[in-house]
Amino acid sequence: MFLLLFAVVMGSAHYYVWRRAVRNTTVPGRARRIGTGVVVGLFVLMVAAVLVESPVLAWPGYLWLAGAFYLAVVFGVLEVPRLLLNRAARRRVPVAVGAPADEPDEAPEDPDRRLFIARSLAVAAGAVTVGTIGYGMTQALGAPQLKTIPVQLTKLDRRLAGYRIAVVSDIHLGPLLGRAHTERIVRMINEQRPDLVAIVGDLVDGTVEQLGEAAAPLRDLVSTHGAFFVTGNHEYYSGFEPWLTELDRLGVHPLRNERVRVERAGASFDLAGVNDVTGKNFQDGPDFARALAGRDQSNPVVLLAHQPVQAHEAAKHGVDLQLSGHTHGGQMFPFHLAVGLQQPVRTGLEVVDGVQVYTSNGAGFWGPPVRVGAPPDISLVELHHNFAS
Question: Percent helix, strand, coil in the chain (nearest 5)?
Answer without folding.
Answer: 45, 20, 35
